[in-house]
Amino acid sequence: MGRQGKWVAAFVLGLAGAVLALPGPAVGQEIKIGWIGPLSGWGAPGGTAIMRGAQLAIDHVNAGGGIDGRKLVLVTRDSEATPAKAITVARELIDREKVYALIGKYDSSSAKALNPVIHEAGTPMMLSIAAATKNIEYERNPNFMFRASGNDTFIAEFLVDFVTKELGAKRVAIGYEDTGYGFGGRDDVTKALERRGMKPVAAVKFSRPDTDMTAQALVVKGGNADVIVLYSIAKADAMMIRSLDKVGVKIPVVCAWAASSPELWQFAGPLAQGVFVMQTYSFLDPKLDDLGRKAAADFLKKHGLKDVSEMVTPAFTAHAYDGMLLLAEAMKRARPSFDPARLGEDRKKIRDALEANLGPIRGLIKTYSPAFTKDNHDSIGPEDYIMTVWNEGKLIPFKGKQDWGKKH
Predict the structure, then answer these.
(1) Which residues pair with 376 in a beta bridge?
(2) What's 313's DSSP letter?
(3) Which of 14, 115, 187, 277 is deepest in the core (most CB within 10 A)?
(4) Do domains 31-150+293-377 and 153-279+386-403 have the same CATH topology?
(5) Which is higher by pLDDT, 238 or 110?
(6) Among candidates 188, 180, 209, 177, which has minimal Cα distance to 81?
């Protein structure tokens, strides 16, 4: 090789070395997942439960090697349970933090407000709790919103099925808070009754801060109801239960899932004994499988708790755990580049993987197979719902009338 040939070869080798030395996505770099939910205000207990469930799943995914050797990290933001704040923090997570996906929420009004934001940014979001049907059904295509949660329409059907078949109720009253959640619950329960040729004998409205609902309880008494379905947060449910007792109404109380919070027992005391609460998962199920036992043990250790009965809204934690597992599996199957310059492309790949026959994946609530389809972004259906009952300060799976407790 002549002098010129040697120079050319040296130049090529040097250029190749320079190319190899260019910075690229490191194998060990972190993958950011954005979390949005209330960590202050009225929604803080539920929001905290959701955040902890997502983090527990991330801990388990990372312990298993992460995503192609990269660790997941949860970047949290407090939405304060308000749509405006939720939009602000979502844009911050998407634009500044460069997250690959979002998870979280609690209140349906904020979740609905995020639909155009995530669509514009092309960022998939997994709703852990936000049960309003329309949260995942909107006109934009493709749909970037997915849900591992209950669905209010299905929940109402489940509750009415329970009160009519299991409790034999003929005269159903409805109590609901004056929010989108409460109004939606009232309407869904009313429609479920109408499909059975029934009408509510009373429908009473109250506000979350109310402490005396005597007037509403008297309306229920006047309607001669033999059961009442409550759609509100746990503290307001407790105040309604106390007011019913005050006017001498002794009927079964059946609640939507927000009444799983320890606030129900805290504020209603022994009157909460025998109150039914719709759930999708219970860490107190005697038939808990290996994953459930591991999740419970790790959760207790991480948060310094002695017993799973101390967990706040535990089903919310289970939903977030499963939702995060589904996101992680979609990321594995999508095989993103993890190149910051191709973030938008990677986000779309993750969205597409969520919709493309994702499963089987073993979660706490069920084995998802598939988790979603193009026409169904709900991973949990009414067949996955269970009834639980408050018994001596613990919310246990309902197995039959022997679980009603001393109240009945």
Answers:
(1) 373
(2) S
(3) 277
(4) yes
(5) 238
(6) 180
CA distances for 164 relative to 171, 228, 395, angstroms: 9, 11, 22
Q: Token pair for residue 19?
A: 């190319």
Pairwise CA distance, residues 397 & 85, whole Å = 36
Partners of 102 in beta bridges: 34, 125
Residue-level pLDDT at 401: 52
Q: Is the pLDDT of residue 26 over 50?
A: no
Q: Which two tokens stand for residue 220?
A: 């229920």
Residue 269: CB atoms within 10 Å:
13
pLDDT tops 90 at residue 178: yes
What is the structure's pLDDT at 120?
Answer: 94
Q: Where are the domains of the chain?
A: 31-150+293-377, 153-279+386-403
pTM for this prediction = 0.86
Residue 87 CB-density burial (10 A; 0-12 exposed, 13-18 middle, 19+ buried) = middle
3-state secondary structure of 115: helix
Q: Which residues contact 187 (CB under 8 A, 6 or more apart)?
A: none
Partners of 172 in the β-ladder: 227
> Residue ranges of the alpha helices (H) in 92-138?
108-121
Q: What order do you get walking across the sheet with 386-391 strand by strand? A: 202-206, 172-177, 227-231, 253-255, 276-279, 386-391, 394-397
Dihedral sign computed on CA atoms, order 262, 264, 270, 274: negative
In CATH terms, 153-279+386-403 corresponds, of 3.40.50.620, 3.40.50.720, 3.40.50.2300, 3.40.50.300, to: 3.40.50.2300
The architecture that CATH gives domain 31-150+293-377 is 3-Layer(aba) Sandwich (3.40)
Structure tokens at 15: 């250029």
What number of other Cβ atoms are within 10 A of residue 216's Cβ?
22
Calculate Rg over the CA atoms of the chain. Answer: 25
Q: What is the pLDDT of residues 76-86, one digit of tens each?
A: 999 998 999 99
CA distance 358 to 163: 35
Please tell me whether residue 212 adopts helix, strand or coil conformation: coil
Task: Please give the sequence-ordered ranges of beta strands (E in DSSP) within 232-274, or none if there are none.
Answer: 253-255
Q: Are strands 361-362 and 394-397 parallel, antiparallel or unpaired?
A: unpaired
Average pLDDT over every residue of 42-51:
90
